[in-house]
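Thread: "does anyone have the structure for this chain?"

Original post by V.I.:
We have the sequence but no experimental structure in hand. Need at least a predicted one for the grant figures.
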Amino acid sequence: MKIFDCHSHWATEKGYLFRTDVERAQQEKVWRTPFKLFTEQEQADYFRKNNVRNIMDISWIKELPLEEMREYHDYVIGVQKQHHDVMFGQWLQFDPRRHGKAAVQEFQRCIDQKAGFVGLCVNGQVTGVPACDPEWDPFYKASIDAGVPVMILCGLTGIGQGLPGGKGIVLDDGHPRHIDRVAARFPQLRILAARPGWPWQDEVIALMLHKSNVSYELHGWGPKQFTPALKKEIAGRMQDRIMFGCDFPVLRYEKVIADWHAQGYTEQVLEKVLCRNAEVYFGAS
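Reply from O.Q.:
Generated one for you, tokens below.
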């Protein structure tokens, strides 16, 4: 079965999400996946081996000066051009208070390269700027103009998990209420709510029922950990609006895909969630 992974991270030395030994040890504790660096070629070959096409996220660079971020954007887009058969696109993250209007211009510059999909990923928890804050509005308007969806992270994050103070992150900055306000204010904006929204899973389901411009992507968790309500929606009324995300390299396809197949879903549902829904949503078929 083909796999379309809507959200994973870079596993290369230049792009790896966790930069320090402490963070990498914490990754192994939270996700129980051994730390390993891949070369760019090894990473692409791993995707090919697992019949995966994905959208990557080099999320950590949002804490850098914008001039340094440009170098990384050119890096990920350059690697994508070399491996476009398995790398469909890139999510870009920014801190709107740190980078301001120039960040919107950089976002547009990356879109204009037309090397593949480029979209905005909003991380309200790490930036401390919830998705409904007006600071994000210029990015939403640019996304509408470009005709690309926006990913908005919600629910429990693994960043800072288990550390004293949780690395300063306030979980409520990822509450689905912020997505609801964005969806209401920008009905033309296609929004991909991302990560299982626990502990607010029912709120995400209600949001999808109410706002047709919101779909749902499930990276960062294995399907065995989903709530009963979410498992029911995957097999039922939301089966055309829910999409797969792996969160490689902290999770690996071999285990996550096997766990999906072990949940008792029909082949038709699995085909939709693991590939077809995303192909339609991103125009990738």
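V.I.: this helps a lot. The chain has twelve helices and eight strands.
O.Q.: and The beta strands are 3-9, 52-57, 87-92, 117-122, 150-153, 191-194, 214-217, 242-243.
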